[in-house]
TrEMBL record:
Pfam family, one: VAR1
Keyword entries, A-Z: Mitochondrion, Ribonucleoprotein, Ribosomal protein
Gene Ontology terms: biological process: translation
Protein's name in the database: Small ribosomal subunit protein uS3m
GO MF, one example: structural constituent of ribosome
Lineage of the species this protein comes from: Eukaryota, Fungi, Dikarya, Basidiomycota, Agaricomycotina
Localization per record: Mitochondrion
Similarity comment: Belongs to the universal ribosomal protein uS3 family.
Length: 123
């Protein structure tokens, strides 16, 4: 159906994810869309509480993939935060992200404009 609509061959690649924090692109878009309605501190508290972060050495043979760490970087002004300078950058991290500890590091960025200016979220 999509191939007929777009007049081009369309190929869907479906990936089953149990949690949004397993894919950085999905996580950053989710955080970016709800950050203007919910305070960022509450989003981070709930995310860091739910995310299960594993140590690489202990679970190497048991699990095919796991999360070794999450780092979130917020630059700019969100609507739910107090008025701050535009150049403010805040980093939040849980777990390890060093190349020796993590096999694959996946990064995504979400940038949007609101009435206080622009903001960017990187996961």
């Amino acid at each position: 159906i999509l191939s007929r609509i777009f007049n081009k061959p369309v190929e869907l690649e479906l990936i089953r994810l149990y949690r949004p924090y397993f894919d950085s692109n999905i996580l950053v878009n989710t955080i970016g869309l709800i950050s203007n309605k919910i305070k960022f501190r509450k989003i981070l508290k709930k995310l860091f509480r739910k995310a299960t972060i594993r140590n690489n050495k202990k679970t190497n043979n048991l699990l095919p993939s796991f999360l070794s760490g999450i780092q979130i970087r917020v630059a700019g002004r969100l609507l739910t935060n107090r008025v701050i300078p535009r150049m403010t950058v805040k980093n939040y991290q849980k777990g390890r992200l060093a190349r020796s500890k993590a096999t694959l590091v996946d990064t995504s960025r979400f940038t949007r404009k609101n009435k206080r200016g622009t903001f960017s979220i990187t996961v």
